[in-house]
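Consider the tokenized backbone below.
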């Protein structure tokens, strides 16, 4: 259980198979985000239909509402949301970092104000593990101290050292909980360090110091730093990561970022962009993003993306999709979310095929050239 097998390598890009309690995940793979135990506007049937292999749910959100005890009483997160495939939960660290209201980080953990009832709550490395154990995902994440992508060096350094100290506590608590059922859930650490390469390397050393993990996550990127800085950080980091571990790049999921990260050796991705942008009428296409509200689509009988095999593209015209958005019809939100999740899922599938066939490098260069040439038109 929790094994990762490399199926092919092309340049720095990897294709692999991750074995989890509820099934295998073939990588590179995109994870749709089910913040509140649901991927907005999409049912588990929709997600299966577009080839989703692994879902992400948010520990913070499920903790404040409905509470992990409610989810556990109703059979755990898989049963609760009607998804029997693999699930990964984040640690809650990023949500707390993103909160607008009160938050305070100290050595013990983080205190924050619930966005639901305004009450003060405390999350510690141990509590984050206990909450995720009660929720029951296949992969849990250790609590990390997240800082802005443009934070000064001393803040980044302080956060990465704290994250390393918290990891020891999280690992001990998880080992105790999982001792009677070691195949139920695994815990992954998060590598912090901003865009400072020496700090990233130190974070990797801290994470790997005397511990054996079944995978690791790269956090603290795609949080406000320039894209070029994110790519450069990944490029510098990849040689320091153990080749045998799956690498999850947190919060990255715009098509061009996903592909650039695959090219730099990343395996798993999550992002709210496909569903959030979909609800705003923005669709990903091989020729860049398109807004279906655009008047140019009014009389267009063609599919949103002629290369796509999703329900939306096989069934409806651009003209109809535009009409749904102009009329504020709920179906429009579902159809665009469905297409965008399929688009990123298929991008992972295509990348995997080209990695195994040894054609990834030229394919991804051509793919990005077409995508960028069409963006903004
Ligand atoms: Zn489609």
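A designed sequence for it:
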């Amino acid at each position: 259980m929790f094994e990762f097998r490399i199926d092919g390598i092309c340049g720095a890009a990897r294709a692999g198979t991750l074995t989890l309690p509820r099934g295998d995940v073939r990588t590179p793979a995109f994870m749709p985000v089910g913040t509140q135990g649901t991927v907005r506007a999409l049912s588990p049937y929709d997600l299966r239909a577009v080839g989703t292999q692994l879902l992400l749910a948010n520990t913070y959100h499920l903790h404040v509402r409905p509470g992990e005890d409610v989810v556990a009483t109703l059979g755990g997160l898989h049963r609760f949301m009607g998804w029997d495939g693999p699930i990964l939960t984040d640690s809650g660290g990023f949500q707390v970092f993103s909160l607008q209201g009160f938050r305070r980080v100290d050595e013990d953990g983080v205190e924050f104000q619930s966005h639901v009832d305004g009450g003060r709550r405390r999350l510690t490395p141990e509590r984050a593990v206990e909450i995720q154990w009660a929720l029951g995902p296949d992969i849990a994440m250790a609590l990390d101290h997240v800082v802005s992508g443009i934070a000064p060096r001393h803040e980044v350094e302080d956060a990465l050292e704290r994250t390393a100290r918290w990891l020891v506590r999280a690992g001990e608590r998880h080992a105790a909980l999982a001792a009677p059922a070691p195949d139920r859930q695994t815990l992954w650490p998060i590598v912090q360090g901003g865009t400072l390469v020496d700090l990233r390397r130190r974070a990797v050393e801290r994470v790997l110091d005397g511990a054996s993990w079944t995978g690791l996550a790269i956090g603290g990127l795609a949080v406000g730093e320039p894209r070029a800085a994110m790519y450069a950080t990944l490029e510098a980091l990849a040689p320091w990561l153990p080749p045998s571990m799956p690498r999850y790049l947190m919060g990255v999921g715009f098509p061009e970022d996903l592909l650039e990260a695959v090219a730099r050796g990343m395996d798993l991705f999550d992002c709210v962009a496909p569903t959030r942008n979909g609800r705003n009428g923005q669709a990903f296409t091989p020729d860049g993003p398109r807004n279906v509200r655009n008047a140019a689509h009014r009389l267009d009988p063609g599919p949103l993306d002629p290369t796509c095999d999703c329900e939306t593209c096989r069934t409806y015209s651009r003209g109809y999709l535009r009409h749904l958005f102009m009329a504020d019809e709920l179906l429009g939100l579902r159809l665009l979310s469905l297409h965008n999740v399929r688009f990123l899922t298929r991008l992972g599938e295509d990348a995997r095929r080209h990695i195994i066939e040894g054609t990834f490098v030229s394919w991804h260069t051509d793919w990005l050239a077409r995508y960028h040439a069409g963006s903004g038109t």
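Residues 304-305, 308, 310, 312-313, 339, 342 surround zinc ion (CB under 6 Å).
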